[in-house]
Amino acid sequence: MKTLPTKRLMTRFVREVLAWFGHVKKDVLAARWELLALLGLISPMLLHGFLGSIEATWGNGLYWFNLLTSILWIGLMWGIPVSGRIKRWGLILLGVTVLAEWFMVIHFRTRLSSGYLFLLFSNASEWDEFTLTYSRTVIPLALLGALFWGACWFGMGGSPKPKLVARIPLLLLSLLALLGAYGGVFIRGILGNGLHHNALVLSAWDIANKEMGAPMGVFFQAAVVGKTQSETARYVSLRRGQSLQATQSVRTPGEIYVLVIGESSRPQNWGLLGYARNTTPRLAGLSNLVPFPHVLPPACVTAISVPGWLSFQRMDDWVGVISHKSVISAFRSAGFNTHWLSTQEMDVWAGGCIPVVAEEAKTRRYFDRCFDGVLVDEVRKLVGNRSSKPMLVVLHTKGSHFRFDRRYPGQFAKFPTQGVNYCTGLVNSYDNSILYTDWVLAEISKILEHSGRPAVLAYASDHGENLYDDSNAHFGHGIGTKYDLAAACFFWCSKSFVSAKPNKLGALASNAHKRVSGSSLAHTLAGLADLQSEFYRDDFDLASFSFEQKPRMYQLHDDLRIEAPPAD
Prior knowledge:
11% strand, single chain, alpha/beta, Alkaline Phosphatase, subunit A
């Protein structure tokens, strides 16, 4: 058999490639309505890239990953060799998600993430009210969508049968590239979590959490919601029939309470709490701020710690924590407007009871993959509403969650992360995240002070973080060391609040250096607002001179641990 020369082989290869592109060009012209419909599927994602903050989208590597998978999904869908008459059914259904995403981007500058899908599915009875509220946007979008997808429907119906030689190669290439992209995320998760069954499951779910591309991302996010709802059903059944009634003994018109739940923020790296670096310069300059350096959180994992912070129940009664309503319900029953705003994604392994607790607030909003600074603008809007009705705002932040260098904009990179060894760079990026948290919190206090209304800003991190601090070389949290079982915490009061309730600030200051447990937060918030309920106890209230140090309880690896206070 005669061997073809290399030159002839290359010529044939080029000729075949050009021929394939020729087939593709003809097929695209024949199926241009199909291609237009497919491109329309990623339009909300591109719009979000232009309207969202640069750091939250275009500057985020995860956004580029989602954009890549979006293009690959479109390539895969276009490569399916079926006629336009069949394919248009699927594209019409996907068009509904496009309209929903357009609405989310226009109104809330966010995508249709698991957080908002959870709200939609868990509040289906309120859809009619929601539609009426936003009818000025919903109706034009529905009409525009009907025109666009109607045109695609009839246009695709006249498309001829696609050429297999043009479609199949693109279908296979897109499929292989998608498997490679998702496989990369999966392998990275295994490397981070270890090679065991639980790590494999977590790595698989990590793909669903990260995939928000268009148009298929909505199905990945819906899978996260499905798992979350199945897990929260137990908590909902426990809470069924439970109520928490509270009254306000002293009413102060227009008062505002803002609780910021931090993330992985340990006191050892806060300048305000004794750290050698000045990582909190803005907070340090505030008057009427009382830091608490000795705070033990309810746990060193988010899913347990956050419900524990917000509960009136002690940590030795975990069933009581998850089955009783939180301090949010106490404020709401006392006539407060209640809001839950979050920059945390609804990770399937971190949510637990948190979505159920959030449901107690009257309004809830999620800002997935945004810097915590987006919450500053939201607080400004809420405070700008001149209603005299009192208000509780809970902000669940990303804070100093790993990776630390993704938690702050570039202008807050005060401590270098390049040109230094790995551990130094890790600590420096962590400190930069604290510096950004300092800015966010100081801006919120400025908004509250300028409002002239009696206001309190409370901050408590869910837990701390290990940063290779000693010979044990621990990193992360959930381990149970003095670094992840510690939480940064403080209370700040506006001048108007101090004038109205001077004894509260005095009591906070008198208790500042005592050893505090996470079980005190709910009682302290209620005490600051003068709420009375059957669950409130003034000996747990840091804003009361009756506060007492007690054995501090926390959860670690599903076990209750008790730490006795030192002798005074």
